Amino acid sequence: MDTWPSRGAGRTLHEAMLNAGLVDVASRIHVVSAGPGIHKSMTAFLPRRVANAVGTQTELEEFGNELVAALELGDGVYSFCMFVAWGRRPASF
Questions:
Q1: Tally of CB atoms within 10 A around 18
Q2: What stretches of 1-93 show up as alpha helix (H) in DSSP?
Q3: Do 27 and 85 form a contact (C-beta atoms < 8 A)?
Q4: How far apart are CA 92 and CA 4, in angstroms?
Q5: CA nearest 32: which of 70, 81, 73, 72?
Q6: What is the rounded distance in angstroms from the CA atom of residue 39 to the CA atom of residue 78?
Q7: Which of 10, 68, 74, 77 could pair with 83 as two cysteines, CB 3.0-4.6 Å apart?
Q8: In this structure, what are the phi and psi dihedrals at residue 24, rounded to the nearest 5 degrees?
Q9: pTM recorded for the entire structure
Q10: How far is residue 37's CA from residue 72's CA, in Å, rounded to a whole number?
Q11: pLDDT tens digits, residue range 27-71?
């Protein structure tokens, strides 16, 4: 099954790992931004976005076209936050 996490999953990742019993949990937020070439990378994910009802094929293509136009004009920035968390299992796990 190909499913995506809920939209706020990254923000609750740290606490979820603690609740699962992991220790020495740490987390970091990375802001990722990209230039005009991002559209080529995003195109690979388009079928998954449509399949998981993130948007329709047309909506996502329109978004991609608007994004490319804005980036090429120097008027746009595409960025998102990537949440990374890590921890370890306690010896008694």
A1: 13
A2: 9-19, 38-51, 57-73
A3: yes
A4: 31
A5: 81
A6: 10
A7: 10
A8: 50, 40
A9: 0.48
A10: 10
A11: 888 777 766 666 666 666 667 777 767 678 788 778 777 777 777
